[in-house]
Amino acid sequence: MTEPRHIPIQVPVLARVEGEGTLELRVHDGVIEDLRLRIFEPPRMFEKLLEGREYSEVPDMVARICGICPVAYQMSAVHAIESILGVEPGPWVRNMRRVFYCGEWIQSHSLHIHMLAAPDLLGYSSVVEMARKFSEEVRRGLRLQALGNDIIRLLGARSVHPVGARVGGFHHAPKPKQVNLLLEKLHAALPDAEDLLRWTASLELPSDDQDFICVALRHAREYPMNEGRLVSSHGLDIPADQFETRFAEQQVPHSTALHCLLDGSPYLVGPLARLNLNFDHLPDSIRTLVDNLGIGFPSRNMHHSVVARAIEIVFAIREAIRLLEAYREPQLAYVNTMPRAGTGVGCTEAPRGILWHRYELGAEGLVIRARIVPPTSQNQSRMEDDLRQSLQSFGLNQHEDALRHFGERVIRNYDPCISCATHFLDLRISRQGS
Amino acid sequence: MADKPKVAVHKFASCDGCQLAFLNLGEDLLTLAQMVDIVHFAEAGPVNPEAAVDIAFIEGSISMPEDLERIRRIRANTRFLVTIGACATAGGLQALRNFANADEWVASIYARPEYIQSLSTSTPIAQHVKADLEIWGCPVNGRQVLAAVRSLLSGVSPWLEKDKVCMECKRQHNVCVMVAKDIPCMGPVTRSGCGAICPSFGRDCYACYGPAENPNTVALTQRLEGLGLVPEAVARRFHFITAAAPAFAEAGLRGGNMPHD
Ligand code: SF4
Ligand code: SF4
Hints:
The structure holds two protein chains of two kinds.
Chain A: E1 5-7, E2 21-28, E3 31-39, H1 46-49, H2 58-63, H3 70-85, H4 90-122, H5 127-133, H6 135-156, E4 165-166, E5 169-170, H7 176-202, E6 215-218, E7 229-232, E8 237-238, H8 243-246, E9 247-251, E10 258-262, H9 271-278, H10 284-291, H11 305-325, E11 342-350, E12 353-361, E13 367-373, H12 375-394, H13 400-412, H14 430-433
Antiparallel strand pairs in A: 1-2, 2-3, 4-5, 6-7, 7-8, 9-10, 11-12, 12-13
Helix pairs in contact in A: 3-4, 4-5, 4-6, 4-11, 5-6, 6-7, 7-11, 12-13
Chain B: E1 6-11, H1 20-23, H2 27-35, E2 37-41, E3 53-59, H3 65-76, E4 78-84, H4 85-90, H5 102-109, E5 133-135, H6 142-154, H7 165-171, H8 177-181, H9 197-200, H10 217-226, H11 231-238, H12 246-254
Helix pairs in contact in B: 11-12
């Protein structure tokens, strides 16, 4: 073949991905010449929308960046702002923020496993189709997703764009009676979660080891959620406020989005990276459970992401139980704050990986500048690397449908959340120039 | 199968949160899938954007030049068109750009702004095509979307919440946060439907369900100023999640210059 085989995998929209994107391939003599993961998400320009708003408005605004991980946006924002205002909300708030985050991990991971990933692995086009054969598995997934939402509701009144979080803590403290009701549900769900974990580990996952850099937060004692240093599998270890010294977002003409690179290299964030770097901080009981599955972590097989999500569901349920069993109703669910000028950074572990925020506030408490680096833009380069490698070994002479299906699967495995892209590009226009 | 009514869910500029009203239905999602044929719902699986359907749900606002053509095709292919959420119904939070210079914004965020093709405004669906039903909320909830499916398919005209959040607070015997705690609350002008969850949590309503019918924004502006808010702060209250809804757009412009102008 001398003619380049141009394979525009023009999936008009990528199914089962939150947000919309397309993948474009150019193959020459059986080698990928160009590969583009295009993102359709219209720019919503959140960083600019935030300018001139008061710090107290930020948590409710940034939630709207992503309906699937609003808690993560609220948490990165409140931590960044509190560091500017110099407030320390204390242990009750700290623990409840962890519980809040457990809810989001459970909700988001269950949604991904059951609605997005499992249909792929089992050969169905949607969860509804899959439910005909795998009724119990799907129902178990829906129950877990609902449990995650229940946790978020305890502290946030609703699960999408919850209204409970504020700078300084929470607007409202739940009554012990509500906490106890939720505890019952959490205990009852543990067997479901452990069954789910064993089930994901029993799925036939391709073995495809690749080389990649993992990046996650790391805390001195805990599995990371709201706090920690930024570490990598290749020796990075810096405080979150030094992010910009090593990580840079780049606008690449051949690419679709601002790609974030670590010292110029692609890297992975998200459940697999988190687990690979923090396995030793899981409780013993969960480590034993995982050891019995026969999958060794750290793992270099991206397909183990689905297992990593299930492990984090089990962990999040146990963690919520641990924290809620010690629950005491506080006098006040927040500390008062006063405006102060300064710059502050917040970095937390969203379901899809580290979510980094930086705000600059003026003396009146109004936002002067905001910068948000979501997980999906960080995984963007890694996804393209993965696609290049795995499509090449899958075989580029395959039928277009097979290539498309395979490519979608690879992308979906990262659980990309394209709505989170605070600044994705539309490169359909850039082609004019190339 | 062929006889079942067909439903599509389309996405424009949005956070995906309103689609979750479907995906968070739990067991009801499986029931819904038995009642109707979900032919297009990219986030959940089926992709067939051009299919003729009975109900097309639209999430998100119009913000890109090609959105205009896409929404017209969707309209031509559906019997009923239902907008879900603040983005689709009022332009969403991103409509704050309508009050600013969007081109400058793009230039300041992106090193190569020529790659970005975006309209300078974010506008509601009904500004471009006819909407048969507009559901407010950021996000809408499952009860609202299920009720819409049921009433449209049975030929009953859908029931719409038009009350004010204050009414919902009264029904729930909430303590009024404005009266009791001097917290500036948007409840008096905001549409009900959420269950008054913010005042139940002891905080202000920030109007995520948009303007109620006949909102008295002038009276609320005076009240908020009486509570010590400067005109810019009052303007920010109106110019928030549903800034482009006419009643709020106007009240916000009346209240003072937006700091992001
Ligand atoms: S209305 Fe709110 S929840 Fe719905 S898509 Fe828009 S931002 Fe998301
Ligand atoms: S009380 Fe107001 S801000 Fe809160 S959810 Fe209801 S409409 Fe939205």
